[in-house]
């Protein structure tokens, strides 16, 4: 089992809709959870970090963490074509604060 | 967020040559930086953790003699791909932790695309 798993997609949503991206992780990693956005040919850009159970909102983005079920999700409200990118979930190892495992990413297409 | 730069952004070299990639933290000091590699349509794989003033910590399967890391100052880490071969062609990205906080958020440089002919 991979440490971090994501559906590769592509996930297609119409402009203005809510995009929901999901990530599950193994019980060997925990503690800190991150969502990065990566445009084609570019490096990842940090969108959200979440450390405790529940929701965390930042503008159009909401991260949701459920440690009991071992998943973290990202909701994008009012999706825009500019949101079209690959979204990477990252989780740090329980015994190493700095070491991240990345999921393979979910490609999101927002259609105008 | 913290700003991290990389140079060069793109490099093409012949097989057997060595290539040096620089990673700089701008306006903040980074005692620890990270080097990742990303193949097309794949996720990021951590290669090594670069520690200022000490040896880098390499991940399993990464050859330390092939991928030389030097973290000589608090704002600069370099990755040298020695005797590069076509299979080393990849997107190399460095990152650094956010400065001045206890957060472990990592901010990435723009990446270096290496093509070995």
Number of strands of chain B: 11
Termini of chain A, distance in Å?
Answer: 37 Å
SSE pattern of chain B: EEEEEEEEEEE
First-residue to last-residue Cα separation of chain B? 36 Å
What order do the SSEs of chain A take from the amino end to the carboxyl end, as H and E? EEEEEEEEEEE
Compute the number of helices of chain A: 0
Explain what this protein looks like in three dimensions.
The complex is a heterodimer of chains A (112) and B (117). Chain A is mainly beta and 112 residues long. Chain A has no helices and eleven strands. In chain A, a hairpin with a 2-residue loop joins strand 9 and strand 10. Chain B is an all-beta fold and 117 residues long. Chain B has no helices and eleven strands. Chain B has strands at residues 3-7, 10-13, 19-26, 32-38, 45-51, 57-58, 67-73, 76-81, 90-97, 106-108, 112-116. In chain B, strands 2, 4, 5, 6, 9, 10 and 11 form a seven-stranded mixed sheet that branches. Chain B has a four-stranded antiparallel sheet with strand order 1-3-8-7, with no helix packed on it. In chain B, a hairpin with a 2-residue loop joins strand 7 (67-73) and strand 8 (76-81). The A-B interface holds A 32, 34, 36, 41-46, 49, 88, 92, 97-100, 102-105 and B 1, 32, 34, 42-46, 49, 91, 93, 97, 103-111, 113.
Compact description:
Chain A has 112 residues and is mainly beta. Chain A has no helices and eleven strands.
Key traits:
heterodimer, A: 112 residues, mainly beta, 6-stranded mixed sheet, 5-stranded antiparallel sheet, 62% strand, B: 117 residues, 7-stranded mixed sheet, 4-stranded antiparallel sheet, 11 strands, 0% helix, globular
Write the SSE topology.
The complex is a heterodimer of chains A (112) and B (117).
Chain A: E1 4-6, E2 11-14, E3 19-25, E4 29-38, E5 45-50, E6 54-58, E7 61-66, E8 71-76, E9 85-93, E10 96-102, E11 106-111
Parallel strand pairs in A: 2-11
Antiparallel strand pairs in A: 1-3, 3-8, 4-5, 4-9, 6-7, 7-8, 9-10, 9-11
Chain B: E1 3-7, E2 10-13, E3 19-26, E4 32-38, E5 45-51, E6 57-58, E7 67-73, E8 76-81, E9 90-97, E10 106-108, E11 112-116
Parallel strand pairs in B: 2-11
Antiparallel strand pairs in B: 1-3, 3-8, 4-5, 4-9, 5-6, 7-8, 9-10, 9-11
């Amino acid at each position: 089992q991979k440490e971090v798993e994501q559906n590769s997609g592509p996930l297609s949503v119409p402009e203005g809709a809510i995009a929901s991206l999901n990530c599950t992780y193994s019980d060997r990693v925990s503690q800190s959870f991150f969502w990065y956005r990566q445009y084609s040919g570019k490096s990842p850009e940090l969108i959200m970090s979440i450390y405790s159970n529940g929701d965390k909102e930042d503008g159009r983005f909401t991260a949701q963490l459920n440690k009991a079920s071992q998943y973290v999700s990202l909701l994008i409200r009012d999706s825009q074509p500019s949101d079209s990118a690959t979204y990477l979930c990252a989780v740090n190892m329980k015994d190493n604060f700095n070491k991240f495992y990345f999921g393979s990413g979910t490609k999101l297409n927002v259609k105008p | 967020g913290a700003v991290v730069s990389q140079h060069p952004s793109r490099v093409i070299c012949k097989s057997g040559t060595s290539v040096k990639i620089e990673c700089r933290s701008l306006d903040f000091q980074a005692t620890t930086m990270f080097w990742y590699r990303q193949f097309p349509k794949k996720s990021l794989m951590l290669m090594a953790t670069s520690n200022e003033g000490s040896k880098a910590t390499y991940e399993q399967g990464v050859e330390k003699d092939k991928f030389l890391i030097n973290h000589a100052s608090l704002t600069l880490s370099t990755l040298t791909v020695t005797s590069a071969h076509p299979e080393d062609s990849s997107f190399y990205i460095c990152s650094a932790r956010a400065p001045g906080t206890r957060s472990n958020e990592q901010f990435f440089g723009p990446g270096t695309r290496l093509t070995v002919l």
